[in-house]
Amino acid sequence: MAFMAGAALLEAIARKEREEKEEKKLHAETVGVSDSMMKKCKEAMDTIQAALRLYEPKEMAISFNGGKDATVLLHLVMAGIASMNERWESMEELACVYFEDEECFEEVEEFIRQCQEQFHLRIIRLKTGYKDGCAHMIDNFGTKAFFLGTRKSDPHGHTVEKFSPSTAGWPSFMRIHPILYWHYADIWSFLLQFSIPYCKLYDCGYTSLGGKHNTDKNHMLRQRDGSYLPAHQLQLLESEQHMERHARKETAGTSTVTRRGASHFKPCSVALITIGNEVLTGKIQDSNTSCACKYLHGLGISVARVLVIPDEIQLIADAVREYSSHHMAVITMGGIGPTHDDLTLEAVGQGLGVEMAESDEMQRLLANLKIKQSMQCAGRQFHAKQIRCTLDEPRLTDLLGEVAEVLGGKEEETWEGGIEAGKFAGLVEIGSYPYFDNSPYKTIVVLEGEEEEEVDKSLRMLLDKIPTETITAIEQHGSLPVQSCL
Protein backbone atom coordinates (compact mmCIF):
# COMPACT_ATOMS: atom_id res chain seq x y z
CA MET A 1 0.00 0.00 0.00
CA ALA A 2 2.81 2.38 0.86
CA PHE A 3 4.51 1.69 -2.44
CA MET A 4 1.23 2.23 -4.27
CA ALA A 5 0.63 5.57 -2.53
CA GLY A 6 4.20 6.70 -3.12
CA ALA A 7 4.12 5.54 -6.70
CA ALA A 8 0.88 7.45 -7.32
CA LEU A 9 2.42 10.71 -6.10
CA LEU A 10 5.62 10.00 -8.00
CA GLU A 11 3.65 9.38 -11.19
CA ALA A 12 1.82 12.69 -10.77
CA ILE A 13 5.13 14.53 -10.50
CA ALA A 14 6.69 12.62 -13.40
CA ARG A 15 3.59 13.13 -15.53
CA LYS A 16 3.79 16.87 -14.89
CA GLU A 17 7.40 16.94 -16.08
CA ARG A 18 6.51 15.09 -19.29
CA GLU A 19 3.64 17.44 -19.99
CA GLU A 20 5.82 20.52 -19.48
CA LYS A 21 8.23 19.21 -22.09
CA GLU A 22 5.57 18.12 -24.57
CA GLU A 23 2.71 20.59 -24.18
CA LYS A 24 3.87 23.23 -21.66
CA LYS A 25 0.57 22.95 -19.87
CA LEU A 26 -1.25 20.71 -17.40
CA HIS A 27 -2.78 17.49 -18.66
CA ALA A 28 -6.43 16.81 -17.86
CA GLU A 29 -5.39 14.17 -15.32
CA THR A 30 -3.50 16.70 -13.21
CA VAL A 31 -6.09 19.48 -13.26
CA GLY A 32 -6.21 21.02 -9.78
CA VAL A 33 -2.48 20.68 -9.08
CA SER A 34 -0.79 24.05 -9.54
CA ASP A 35 2.49 24.66 -11.29
CA SER A 36 4.00 26.15 -8.13
CA MET A 37 3.06 23.04 -6.12
CA MET A 38 4.59 20.72 -8.71
CA LYS A 39 7.78 22.78 -8.53
CA LYS A 40 7.85 22.44 -4.75
CA CYS A 41 7.34 18.68 -5.02
CA LYS A 42 10.12 18.37 -7.61
CA GLU A 43 12.58 20.23 -5.38
CA ALA A 44 11.65 18.10 -2.36
CA MET A 45 11.96 14.90 -4.41
CA ASP A 46 15.43 15.92 -5.57
CA THR A 47 16.52 16.19 -1.92
CA ILE A 48 14.89 12.88 -0.98
CA GLN A 49 16.36 10.99 -3.92
CA ALA A 50 19.82 12.40 -3.19
CA ALA A 51 19.53 11.09 0.37
CA LEU A 52 18.29 7.69 -0.79
CA ARG A 53 21.36 7.38 -3.00
CA LEU A 54 23.71 8.31 -0.16
CA TYR A 55 22.37 5.94 2.49
CA GLU A 56 21.26 2.34 2.63
CA PRO A 57 17.61 1.70 3.64
CA LYS A 58 18.58 0.36 7.06
CA GLU A 59 20.62 3.51 7.74
CA MET A 60 17.66 5.88 7.41
CA ALA A 61 14.65 6.84 9.53
CA ILE A 62 11.80 9.32 9.24
CA SER A 63 10.34 11.33 12.10
CA PHE A 64 6.57 10.92 12.06
CA ASN A 65 4.27 12.38 14.73
CA GLY A 66 1.00 12.59 12.80
CA GLY A 67 1.21 16.35 12.21
CA LYS A 68 0.59 18.09 8.90
CA ASP A 69 4.28 18.62 8.08
CA ALA A 70 5.13 15.02 8.99
CA THR A 71 2.25 13.80 6.81
CA VAL A 72 3.52 15.75 3.81
CA LEU A 73 7.04 14.46 4.44
CA LEU A 74 5.83 10.86 4.72
CA HIS A 75 4.08 10.94 1.35
CA LEU A 76 7.01 12.63 -0.37
CA VAL A 77 9.44 10.06 1.04
CA MET A 78 7.12 7.22 -0.04
CA ALA A 79 7.17 8.70 -3.54
CA GLY A 80 10.94 8.91 -3.41
CA ILE A 81 11.25 5.29 -2.32
CA ALA A 82 8.86 4.20 -5.07
CA SER A 83 11.15 5.90 -7.58
CA MET A 84 14.10 3.83 -6.37
CA ASN A 85 12.47 0.46 -5.83
CA GLU A 86 15.57 -1.28 -7.13
CA ARG A 87 17.15 -0.51 -3.75
CA TRP A 88 14.02 -0.75 -1.61
CA GLU A 89 11.88 -3.86 -1.24
CA SER A 90 9.12 -2.29 0.88
CA MET A 91 8.27 0.73 2.99
CA GLU A 92 8.82 -1.40 6.09
CA GLU A 93 12.55 -1.06 5.54
CA LEU A 94 12.32 2.59 6.61
CA ALA A 95 12.00 3.11 10.36
CA CYS A 96 9.32 5.65 11.33
CA VAL A 97 10.24 7.17 14.67
CA TYR A 98 7.42 8.45 16.84
CA PHE A 99 8.39 10.33 20.03
CA GLU A 100 5.38 9.65 22.23
CA ASP A 101 3.80 12.36 24.38
CA GLU A 102 1.97 11.28 27.53
CA GLU A 103 -0.68 13.90 26.80
CA CYS A 104 -1.05 13.15 23.11
CA PHE A 105 -4.42 13.87 21.51
CA GLU A 106 -6.48 10.72 20.91
CA GLU A 107 -7.15 11.98 17.38
CA VAL A 108 -3.41 12.05 16.66
CA GLU A 109 -2.95 8.49 17.94
CA GLU A 110 -5.87 7.36 15.80
CA PHE A 111 -4.42 9.00 12.69
CA ILE A 112 -0.99 7.43 13.27
CA ARG A 113 -2.59 3.97 13.61
CA GLN A 114 -4.50 4.55 10.37
CA CYS A 115 -1.29 5.48 8.54
CA GLN A 116 0.51 2.49 10.00
CA GLU A 117 -2.16 0.09 8.76
CA GLN A 118 -2.70 1.71 5.38
CA PHE A 119 0.96 2.14 4.42
CA HIS A 120 2.47 -0.77 6.39
CA LEU A 121 4.76 1.54 8.33
CA ARG A 122 7.34 0.18 10.76
CA ILE A 123 6.76 2.62 13.60
CA ILE A 124 9.23 2.70 16.49
CA ARG A 125 7.71 4.39 19.52
CA LEU A 126 10.08 6.16 21.88
CA LYS A 127 9.21 7.69 25.24
CA THR A 128 12.53 9.53 25.58
CA GLY A 129 13.58 13.05 24.59
CA TYR A 130 14.82 13.78 21.10
CA LYS A 131 18.51 13.59 21.93
CA ASP A 132 18.29 10.28 23.78
CA GLY A 133 15.90 8.95 21.15
CA CYS A 134 18.34 9.66 18.35
CA ALA A 135 21.11 7.97 20.33
CA HIS A 136 18.84 4.93 20.77
CA MET A 137 18.20 4.72 17.02
CA ILE A 138 21.90 5.00 16.23
CA ASP A 139 22.99 2.41 18.80
CA ASN A 140 20.22 -0.14 18.22
CA PHE A 141 19.29 0.27 14.56
CA GLY A 142 22.43 1.72 12.96
CA THR A 143 20.60 4.87 11.87
CA LYS A 144 22.81 7.43 10.16
CA ALA A 145 20.26 9.89 8.72
CA PHE A 146 16.82 11.21 9.70
CA PHE A 147 14.19 12.70 7.40
CA LEU A 148 12.65 15.64 9.29
CA GLY A 149 9.66 17.86 8.51
CA THR A 150 11.35 21.03 9.75
CA ARG A 151 10.61 24.29 7.93
CA LYS A 152 12.41 27.63 8.09
CA SER A 153 9.62 29.18 10.19
CA ASP A 154 9.96 26.51 12.88
CA PRO A 155 12.01 27.16 16.04
CA HIS A 156 15.67 26.79 15.04
CA GLY A 157 14.62 26.21 11.42
CA HIS A 158 16.71 29.19 10.38
CA THR A 159 19.88 27.42 11.58
CA VAL A 160 19.70 24.41 9.25
CA GLU A 161 19.82 23.61 5.53
CA LYS A 162 18.47 20.70 3.50
CA PHE A 163 21.38 18.54 4.64
CA SER A 164 22.70 19.47 8.09
CA PRO A 165 24.87 17.40 10.44
CA SER A 166 23.59 17.03 13.99
CA THR A 167 24.27 19.79 16.50
CA ALA A 168 27.48 19.72 18.51
CA GLY A 169 26.99 17.67 21.67
CA TRP A 170 24.43 15.39 20.02
CA PRO A 171 25.06 11.90 18.61
CA SER A 172 26.47 12.03 15.09
CA PHE A 173 23.88 11.77 12.29
CA MET A 174 22.65 13.65 9.22
CA ARG A 175 19.44 15.70 9.28
CA ILE A 176 17.57 15.84 5.97
CA HIS A 177 14.93 18.55 5.45
CA PRO A 178 13.09 18.11 2.11
CA ILE A 179 10.37 20.70 2.89
CA LEU A 180 12.63 23.24 4.61
CA TYR A 181 11.62 26.09 2.29
CA TRP A 182 7.90 25.34 2.20
CA HIS A 183 5.44 27.81 3.68
CA TYR A 184 2.31 27.10 5.67
CA ALA A 185 0.18 27.56 2.54
CA ASP A 186 2.37 25.09 0.62
CA ILE A 187 1.70 22.38 3.20
CA TRP A 188 -2.04 22.76 2.82
CA SER A 189 -1.87 23.09 -0.95
CA PHE A 190 -0.08 19.73 -1.08
CA LEU A 191 -2.53 17.96 1.22
CA LEU A 192 -5.62 19.38 -0.47
CA GLN A 193 -4.52 19.24 -4.09
CA PHE A 194 -3.37 15.61 -3.80
CA SER A 195 -6.36 14.70 -1.58
CA ILE A 196 -4.15 13.28 1.15
CA PRO A 197 -5.82 12.42 4.50
CA TYR A 198 -4.63 14.32 7.57
CA CYS A 199 -5.41 14.44 11.28
CA LYS A 200 -8.99 15.65 11.77
CA LEU A 201 -7.96 18.10 14.52
CA TYR A 202 -6.84 20.48 11.77
CA ASP A 203 -10.48 20.87 10.76
CA CYS A 204 -11.35 22.03 14.28
CA GLY A 205 -9.19 25.16 14.57
CA TYR A 206 -5.79 23.66 15.41
CA THR A 207 -2.93 24.84 13.19
CA SER A 208 0.03 23.24 14.99
CA LEU A 209 -0.15 20.10 17.11
CA GLY A 210 1.81 19.27 20.24
CA GLY A 211 0.40 17.68 23.38
CA LYS A 212 -2.84 18.53 25.16
CA HIS A 213 -0.84 20.46 27.77
CA ASN A 214 0.71 22.89 25.32
CA THR A 215 -1.66 23.13 22.34
CA ASP A 216 -4.79 25.21 21.91
CA LYS A 217 -6.93 26.12 18.94
CA ASN A 218 -5.59 29.08 17.02
CA HIS A 219 -7.66 32.12 18.01
CA MET A 220 -7.01 33.69 14.59
CA LEU A 221 -9.50 31.14 13.23
CA ARG A 222 -12.17 31.86 15.80
CA GLN A 223 -15.49 33.10 14.41
CA ARG A 224 -17.92 35.54 16.01
CA ASP A 225 -20.20 32.66 17.06
CA GLY A 226 -17.36 30.87 18.86
CA SER A 227 -16.75 28.25 16.18
CA TYR A 228 -13.42 27.78 14.41
CA LEU A 229 -12.48 27.65 10.76
CA PRO A 230 -10.30 24.76 9.51
CA ALA A 231 -6.55 25.23 9.56
CA HIS A 232 -6.18 25.46 5.79
CA GLN A 233 -8.13 28.75 5.80
CA LEU A 234 -5.49 30.57 7.85
CA GLN A 235 -3.59 32.90 5.53
CA LEU A 236 -0.17 34.15 6.55
CA LEU A 237 2.13 36.72 5.03
CA GLU A 238 5.81 36.02 4.47
CA SER A 239 6.72 37.62 7.81
CA GLU A 240 3.95 35.81 9.70
CA GLN A 241 4.78 32.15 9.04
CA HIS A 242 5.54 31.55 12.72
CA MET A 243 1.95 32.42 13.63
CA GLU A 244 0.69 28.94 12.78
CA ARG A 245 2.29 28.04 16.15
CA HIS A 246 0.51 30.92 17.85
CA ALA A 247 -1.48 28.59 20.09
CA ARG A 248 1.50 26.51 21.22
CA LYS A 249 2.50 27.31 24.80
CA GLU A 250 6.01 27.47 26.16
CA THR A 251 6.88 24.38 28.16
CA ALA A 252 10.02 23.25 29.92
CA GLY A 253 12.37 21.26 27.75
CA THR A 254 10.82 22.28 24.47
CA SER A 255 11.42 24.99 21.93
CA THR A 256 7.71 25.63 21.44
CA VAL A 257 6.77 29.17 22.36
CA THR A 258 3.75 31.39 22.14
CA ARG A 259 4.62 34.57 20.25
CA ARG A 260 3.39 37.63 22.06
CA GLY A 261 2.90 40.99 20.46
CA ALA A 262 2.46 39.55 16.98
CA SER A 263 -0.31 40.91 14.83
CA HIS A 264 -3.57 38.96 14.58
CA PHE A 265 -5.94 38.67 11.69
CA LYS A 266 -8.62 36.32 10.52
CA PRO A 267 -8.91 34.73 7.10
CA CYS A 268 -12.13 36.71 6.46
CA SER A 269 -10.21 39.97 6.65
CA VAL A 270 -9.59 42.96 4.42
CA ALA A 271 -6.61 45.21 3.87
CA LEU A 272 -6.78 48.97 3.39
CA ILE A 273 -4.31 50.83 1.20
CA THR A 274 -4.28 54.64 1.29
CA ILE A 275 -2.54 56.17 -1.69
CA GLY A 276 -1.30 59.73 -1.76
CA ASN A 277 1.85 61.77 -1.43
CA GLU A 278 -0.15 64.45 0.37
CA VAL A 279 -0.84 62.07 3.25
CA LEU A 280 2.80 61.05 3.61
CA THR A 281 3.94 64.66 3.46
CA GLY A 282 1.39 65.75 6.05
CA LYS A 283 -0.61 68.03 3.79
CA ILE A 284 -3.75 65.96 4.30
CA GLN A 285 -4.87 64.05 7.36
CA ASP A 286 -5.96 60.50 6.54
CA SER A 287 -9.49 60.35 7.90
CA ASN A 288 -10.60 57.67 5.42
CA THR A 289 -8.85 54.89 7.31
CA SER A 290 -10.55 55.46 10.64
CA CYS A 291 -13.96 55.82 8.99
CA ALA A 292 -13.47 52.67 6.93
CA CYS A 293 -12.26 50.66 9.93
CA LYS A 294 -15.25 51.72 12.00
CA TYR A 295 -17.70 50.94 9.21
CA LEU A 296 -16.18 47.55 8.39
CA HIS A 297 -15.94 46.60 12.05
CA GLY A 298 -19.65 47.31 12.38
CA LEU A 299 -20.26 44.84 9.57
CA GLY A 300 -18.23 42.19 11.36
CA ILE A 301 -15.33 42.43 8.90
CA SER A 302 -11.82 42.40 10.35
CA VAL A 303 -9.34 44.97 9.04
CA ALA A 304 -5.99 43.20 9.18
CA ARG A 305 -3.69 45.65 7.43
CA VAL A 306 -3.49 49.39 6.87
CA LEU A 307 -0.85 50.78 4.52
CA VAL A 308 -0.06 54.29 3.31
CA ILE A 309 2.05 54.55 0.16
CA PRO A 310 2.97 57.29 -2.32
CA ASP A 311 1.63 57.74 -5.85
CA GLU A 312 4.03 55.27 -7.45
CA ILE A 313 2.68 52.60 -9.77
CA GLN A 314 5.15 49.86 -8.80
CA LEU A 315 4.65 50.35 -5.07
CA ILE A 316 0.87 50.29 -5.46
CA ALA A 317 0.98 47.23 -7.70
CA ASP A 318 3.27 45.32 -5.33
CA ALA A 319 1.06 46.11 -2.34
CA VAL A 320 -2.13 45.09 -4.15
CA ARG A 321 -0.51 41.87 -5.38
CA GLU A 322 0.74 40.85 -1.92
CA TYR A 323 -2.35 41.79 0.06
CA SER A 324 -4.84 40.35 -2.44
CA SER A 325 -3.24 36.92 -2.02
CA HIS A 326 -3.76 36.96 1.74
CA HIS A 327 -7.04 38.78 2.31
CA MET A 328 -10.66 38.47 1.32
CA ALA A 329 -10.57 41.96 -0.22
CA VAL A 330 -8.24 44.90 -0.69
CA ILE A 331 -9.68 48.42 -0.53
CA THR A 332 -7.69 51.29 -1.99
CA MET A 333 -8.42 54.86 -0.91
CA GLY A 334 -7.24 58.28 -1.89
CA GLY A 335 -6.16 57.54 -5.43
CA ILE A 336 -9.14 56.88 -7.69
CA GLY A 337 -10.95 60.01 -8.80
CA PRO A 338 -11.33 62.59 -11.54
CA THR A 339 -7.80 63.97 -11.07
CA HIS A 340 -5.55 64.01 -14.10
CA ASP A 341 -2.65 62.40 -12.25
CA ASP A 342 -4.49 59.35 -10.89
CA LEU A 343 -2.34 56.21 -11.09
CA THR A 344 -4.37 53.82 -8.98
CA LEU A 345 -6.42 52.13 -11.69
CA GLU A 346 -3.36 51.32 -13.77
CA ALA A 347 -1.41 50.14 -10.72
CA VAL A 348 -4.22 47.90 -9.44
CA GLY A 349 -4.55 46.33 -12.88
CA GLN A 350 -0.82 45.69 -12.95
CA GLY A 351 -0.88 44.23 -9.44
CA LEU A 352 -3.70 41.83 -10.32
CA GLY A 353 -2.28 40.99 -13.73
CA VAL A 354 -5.23 42.30 -15.72
CA GLU A 355 -5.49 44.90 -18.48
CA MET A 356 -7.39 48.17 -18.24
CA ALA A 357 -10.76 48.01 -19.98
CA GLU A 358 -14.18 49.58 -19.70
CA SER A 359 -16.67 47.36 -17.93
CA ASP A 360 -20.37 47.58 -18.77
CA GLU A 361 -21.18 45.79 -15.52
CA MET A 362 -19.22 48.32 -13.47
CA GLN A 363 -20.88 51.16 -15.33
CA ARG A 364 -24.28 49.79 -14.37
CA LEU A 365 -23.25 49.37 -10.75
CA LEU A 366 -21.96 52.94 -10.61
CA ALA A 367 -25.12 54.23 -12.23
CA ASN A 368 -27.26 52.39 -9.71
CA LEU A 369 -25.28 53.88 -6.86
CA LYS A 370 -25.50 57.31 -8.48
CA ILE A 371 -21.74 57.70 -8.25
CA LYS A 372 -20.37 60.02 -10.88
CA GLN A 373 -17.01 61.61 -11.38
CA SER A 374 -17.93 64.50 -9.17
CA MET A 375 -18.17 64.96 -5.44
CA GLN A 376 -20.91 62.33 -5.07
CA CYS A 377 -20.91 59.11 -3.10
CA ALA A 378 -23.69 56.52 -2.91
CA GLY A 379 -26.34 59.09 -3.79
CA ARG A 380 -24.99 61.83 -1.49
CA GLN A 381 -24.18 65.02 -3.39
CA PHE A 382 -21.34 67.12 -2.00
CA HIS A 383 -20.82 70.77 -2.85
CA ALA A 384 -17.49 72.52 -2.52
CA LYS A 385 -16.15 76.04 -2.81
CA GLN A 386 -12.59 77.25 -2.60
CA ILE A 387 -11.12 80.61 -1.59
CA ARG A 388 -7.56 81.46 -2.53
CA CYS A 389 -6.08 84.39 -0.69
CA THR A 390 -2.80 86.02 0.30
CA LEU A 391 -3.73 86.09 3.99
CA ASP A 392 -1.29 84.03 6.04
CA GLU A 393 -2.56 80.93 7.78
CA PRO A 394 -2.31 82.11 11.44
CA ARG A 395 -4.57 85.11 10.80
CA LEU A 396 -6.96 82.96 8.77
CA THR A 397 -7.24 80.50 11.66
CA ASP A 398 -8.62 83.28 13.87
CA LEU A 399 -11.20 84.16 11.22
CA LEU A 400 -12.33 80.53 10.93
CA GLY A 401 -12.90 80.48 14.66
CA GLU A 402 -15.03 83.63 14.49
CA VAL A 403 -17.14 82.14 11.71
CA ALA A 404 -17.63 78.95 13.72
CA GLU A 405 -18.96 80.95 16.68
CA VAL A 406 -21.40 82.89 14.51
CA LEU A 407 -22.71 79.69 12.89
CA GLY A 408 -23.29 78.24 16.33
CA GLY A 409 -21.28 75.17 15.57
CA LYS A 410 -18.28 73.73 17.29
CA GLU A 411 -14.94 73.90 15.60
CA GLU A 412 -13.46 70.43 15.79
CA GLU A 413 -9.72 70.52 16.02
CA THR A 414 -8.93 67.85 13.48
CA TRP A 415 -5.48 68.70 12.26
CA GLU A 416 -4.37 67.86 8.77
CA GLY A 417 -0.61 67.88 9.11
CA GLY A 418 -0.64 71.28 10.80
CA ILE A 419 -3.49 72.54 8.66
CA GLU A 420 -6.51 73.34 10.77
CA ALA A 421 -9.90 72.10 9.65
CA GLY A 422 -13.30 72.26 11.26
CA LYS A 423 -16.89 71.24 10.77
CA PHE A 424 -19.23 74.16 11.34
CA ALA A 425 -22.76 73.58 12.57
CA GLY A 426 -22.27 69.91 11.65
CA LEU A 427 -23.06 70.76 8.01
CA VAL A 428 -20.02 72.33 6.38
CA GLU A 429 -16.43 71.18 6.58
CA ILE A 430 -13.84 73.90 6.20
CA GLY A 431 -10.12 73.32 5.87
CA SER A 432 -7.25 75.73 5.32
CA TYR A 433 -4.13 74.75 3.46
CA PRO A 434 -1.01 76.94 3.54
CA TYR A 435 1.19 77.28 0.45
CA PHE A 436 4.84 78.14 0.83
CA ASP A 437 5.93 78.22 -2.79
CA ASN A 438 5.76 81.10 -5.27
CA SER A 439 2.03 80.75 -5.86
CA PRO A 440 -0.02 83.99 -6.05
CA TYR A 441 -1.73 82.96 -2.80
CA LYS A 442 -0.57 81.93 0.67
CA THR A 443 -3.61 79.96 1.78
CA ILE A 444 -6.47 78.03 0.23
CA VAL A 445 -9.72 77.57 2.16
CA VAL A 446 -11.96 74.68 1.09
CA LEU A 447 -15.63 74.55 2.14
CA GLU A 448 -17.52 71.32 1.58
CA GLY A 449 -20.97 70.07 2.53
CA GLU A 450 -24.03 68.15 1.37
CA GLU A 451 -26.31 71.21 1.46
CA GLU A 452 -25.30 73.83 -1.08
CA GLU A 453 -27.21 76.54 0.79
CA GLU A 454 -25.13 75.97 3.94
CA VAL A 455 -21.89 75.95 1.94
CA ASP A 456 -22.83 79.28 0.32
CA LYS A 457 -23.80 80.72 3.71
CA SER A 458 -20.41 79.80 5.17
CA LEU A 459 -18.69 81.16 2.08
CA ARG A 460 -20.44 84.53 2.38
CA MET A 461 -19.52 84.81 6.06
CA LEU A 462 -15.88 84.05 5.33
CA LEU A 463 -15.80 86.57 2.48
CA ASP A 464 -17.16 89.18 4.89
CA LYS A 465 -14.30 88.42 7.29
CA ILE A 466 -11.43 88.08 4.83
CA PRO A 467 -10.07 91.40 3.52
CA THR A 468 -11.16 91.76 -0.11
CA GLU A 469 -7.71 92.81 -1.30
CA THR A 470 -6.24 89.48 -0.10
CA ILE A 471 -8.62 87.29 -2.16
CA THR A 472 -7.12 86.16 -5.46
CA ALA A 473 -9.76 83.67 -6.65
CA ILE A 474 -12.95 81.79 -5.73
CA GLU A 475 -13.32 78.31 -7.25
CA GLN A 476 -16.31 75.96 -7.49
CA HIS A 477 -14.50 72.76 -6.47
CA GLY A 478 -12.44 71.31 -3.62
CA SER A 479 -9.39 69.99 -5.48
CA LEU A 480 -6.10 71.44 -4.29
CA PRO A 481 -3.31 72.44 -6.63
CA VAL A 482 0.03 70.67 -6.23
CA GLN A 483 2.64 72.77 -4.49
CA SER A 484 5.95 73.24 -6.20
CA CYS A 485 9.09 72.36 -4.26
CA LEU A 486 10.66 75.03 -2.14
From TrEMBL:
According to UniProt, this protein's pathway is:
Cofactor biosynthesis; FAD biosynthesis; FAD from FMN: step 1/1
Q: Which UniProt keywords apply?
A: ATP-binding, FAD, Flavoprotein, FMN, Nucleotide-binding, Nucleotidyltransferase, Transferase
Give the enzyme's main class according to its UniProt record, as a single word: transferase
- Which reaction does this enzyme catalyse, per its entry? FMN + ATP + H(+) = FAD + diphosphate
In short, the EC number is: 2.7.7.2
Span of domain MoaB/Mog: 271-428
Which Pfam families is this protein grouped with?
FLAD1_M, MoCF_biosynth, PAPS_reduct
Molecular function terms from GO: ATP binding; FMN adenylyltransferase activity
Cite a single GO BP annotation: FAD biosynthetic process
Entry's CDD domains? FAD_synthase
Question: What is the name attached to this protein's record?
Answer: FAD synthase
Q: What is the lineage of its organism?
A: Eukaryota, Cryptophyceae, Pyrenomonadales, Geminigeraceae, Guillardia
